[in-house]
Amino acid sequence: MITPDHLDADRLSAPGGEPVLVVDAGRWVRPKAPIQAVVIGVDREGALPAVVVDDFDLLATIVADAPRPWVSVGSLSRVETLADAVRANPIAATIATQLLRLTAKMPLPEALTAESFAYSSLLGGAEFARWRAAAEIEDGPPTPADPVRIARDGDRLTLTLDDPANRNAMTAAMRDALYEALANALDDPSKPDVLLRGAGRCFSTGGDLPEFGRARDLAEAHLVRTLHSCARALDALGARGTVRVHGASVGSGLEVAAAAHHRIAARDAWFQLPELGMGLVPGAGGTATVARAIGRHRTLWMLLSGKRVGAKQAIEWGLVHAIEGGA
């Protein structure tokens, strides 16, 4: 590939028609011209070559159990599948990579604000509108009056997401109730330890789909989202905050959980970031919280692939710190 100059670099972008570059990881040098294309570096020989990590948005290898930041893809055909995911939603994919690069250098509260700006802009974009128009979404059961159950035992506060009929979907009501409980824990002069868990068959399947796209004022929605950021509050608890997940932790269900300083998974736990397929980026903190746990390259892989990460892979990657009962 010819190194582009500043004018030619325009085509290496979503608006320019070439939103993704799949390159040889051992030979690629990022050009000085500011390209927007998502750069996937591939180790085709299984040599794990020395690379300048910042030159890439995702590093893929055929080597099994490769070290961070590499992602073991097994077959090279899966790299093209990742590239196709960029082409399917090029605006969202580009913004996701920009966010992951930008927020890696920010304190978490500022990173969450940057993500929320991006999320609100994509809610007004054509890619999300296309997904919304094609999606067949039925209203779920009504949210319980008290979607977060609170119990205290001495210096231990247990918060339970308590809407198992709706798989603990993170409705606005649940988010606000969880934020209020976390804020109260932060304000409590006795400084209780906090355990966050979910009732029923799973921790949380993430954002409530019937609520997606209902905000009329996207600017105000950004302010509310950052004002009641459960990820920010959970992170602020520091070592006092623990999350115990089981079953599905999807979308915001993972993004919030990843903010906890102690993360414990049941053996049946699995994790997923499906937002890119909707023309969105995570909106509850995932580009910051998940990336801080596993690195931005592996976070982008989760976004592009939409694949589930099981408990075993999660502990190997650092997404969780322990598996209940051992691996």
Please sum up the structure shown.
With 327 residues, the chain is α/β, with parallel strands linked by helices. Helix content is 35%, strand content 17%. It folds into two domains: 8-88, no CATH class; 108-323, 2-enoyl-CoA Hydratase, Chain A, domain 1.
Commentary on this structure:
The protein is an alpha/beta fold. It folds into two domains: 8-88, no CATH class; 108-323, 2-enoyl-CoA Hydratase, Chain A, domain 1, CATH 3.90.226.10. The chain contains eleven helices and 13 strands. The protein has helices spanning 77-88, 90-103, 108-123, 126-134, 172-187, 218-227, 230-236, 252-257, 286-294, 296-305, 311-317; strands at residues 20-24, 38-43, 58-61, 71-72, 148-153, 156-161, 193-198, 241-245, 248-250, 262-265, 270-272, 309-310, 322-323. A six-stranded mixed sheet has the order 5-6-7-8-10-13, with helices on one face. A four-stranded parallel sheet has the order 1-2-3-4. The termini are far apart.
CATH architecture of the largest domain: Alpha-Beta Complex
Mean pLDDT: 95
Low-confidence stretches: none
Summed up, the domain count is 2
Shape: globular
Q: Proportion of β residues?
A: 15-25%
Determine and state the CATH class of the largest domain. Answer: Alpha Beta
CATH superfamily of the largest domain: 2-enoyl-CoA Hydratase, Chain A, domain 1
> Helicity, in percent?
25-40%
Keyword list:
six-stranded mixed β-sheet; globular; 2 domains; alpha/beta; 2-enoyl-CoA Hydratase, Chain A, domain 1; four-stranded parallel β-sheet; 13 strands; 327 residues; 11 helices
